[in-house]
Amino acid sequence: MNAVQNQVRELVAVELESANRQFPQFHSPHEGWAVIMEELEEAEEALRMMRLDTEIMWRNIRDNIECKVQANSAYEQSIKAACEVIQFAAMTQKYLNMEANP
Question: Are 25 and 97 in contact (CB under 8 A)?
Answer without folding.
Answer: yes
